[in-house]
Specification:
Length: 330
């Protein structure tokens, strides 16, 4: 499927349907073009509409700048996104409008391509299996739930919005599978957990989950002591705290409001799942289906990461690196 044929995510399509009832055709052509541009960018970066924060939104704006759009045009597109997210806020799809966090004065460096804009170009970060174990060993309380959350993200590659939406009824214990309803693609898929997760998952569901909140009637797998459904932002909190405790995290940058953006997040575990699967020999078509990608090209970016990792491992540990005291040939 080409990007021109890409179906818009549900939130964008609902918004445009509502707008078509109110706007003239000329206005709607521009509005639809803006939403298609944004929808393609979301798809290529494996993001759902409700996962976009100020950080991701700035990446989109930097991409527009790199594509040659003038500052005034970028500003118009930002206005379109503001209307989109106001619509989503009014309907309870998102909690806040990320456009409100954007400082319009930052457009000066959008035109100049300064060091800051270069530093904030999209990078794909991932961790290896050993680092994943360090995360699990360093989770905060409740430790069993948080360890399960990290291991499940590692083994399934789920988005944070998907993992908090898992219901107990979605678990198939015989197949060790989970039915996933994706708001990003408006479609369902099945993911699987490994045998080594069975004990931890059963302990959480059968014992510790009720201890966290004894009167819980919640249908959701992951809950908190205050909520019948774990907020998706809490997933990042669990991962980041574990990474900080393990000494694995680093701050990528600090935004104008003084907020720090960390390298290891829930989405880092999604990237890590993809890279590890490819290193283990999984074919890219299967990986694409497990990750719920609409386009195979979205999955292909992980091939380079897996190749780079294998190259590094080969040069560090491959045959020929051993030191057996032999002198070099004359």
């Amino acid at each position: 499927m080409s990007t021109d044929e890409l179906d818009l995510p549900t939130g964008l399509e609902d918004y445009l349907t509502d707008e078509r009832l109110k706007k003239a055709s000329g206005t709607m052509e521009n509005r639809e073009a803006d939403m298609k541009k944004f929808g393609r960018w979301l798809a290529s970066n494996d993001l759902a509409v409700d996962e976009v924060t100020e950080h991701e939104l700035k990446q989109f704006l930097y991409k527009l700048n790199e594509d040659g759009y003038a500052g005034s045009t970028i500003s118009v597109k930002l206005n379109s996104l503001s209307r989109l997210y106001k619509y989503l806020v009014d309907r309870g799809v998102v909690e806040s409008n990320p456009v409100d966090e954007i400082d319009r004065g930052d457009y000066a460096f959008l035109k100049g391509g300064t060091q800051k804009s270069q530093e904030l170009k999209e990078d794909v970060y991932y961790i290896d299996a050993e680092e994943k174990e360090r995360l699990c060993d360093n989770v905060n309380s409740p430790k069993l739930r948080n360890e399960l959350l990290i291991r499940l993200l590692w083994q399934t590659g789920l988005r944070r919005s998907e993992v908090v939406d898992i219901r107990l009824s979605d678990l198939d214990w015989d197949e060790q599978s989970i039915q996933i309803r994706s708001a990003k693609t408006n479609s369902n898929r099945i993911v699987f957990w490994q045998d080594n997760l069975n004990l931890l998952l059963k302990q959480w569901v059968q014992t510790y989950r009720e201890q966290l909140k004894p009167s819980v009637d919640s249908p959701y797998l992951f809950i908190t002591s205050r909520s019948d459904q774990m907020p998706d932002k809490h997933v990042n909190k669990v991962v980041r705290e574990a990474a900080d405790n393990a000494g694995l995290n680093e701050i990528l940058y600090e935004d104008p409001k003084g907020r720090e953006w960390a390298k290891v997040t829930a989405h880092t575990l999604r990237h890590s799942f993809a890279v590890q699967c490819l290193k283990n020999g999984m074919d890219i078509m299967t990986l694409s289906k497990l990750m719920g990608h609409e386009q195979l090209e979205t999955t292909r970016k992980y091939l380079r990461l897996a190749k780079d990792d294998l190259r590094q491992q080969s040069r560090q540990f491959g045959a020929g690196t051993e030191d057996i005291g032999q002198s070099s040939s004359p």
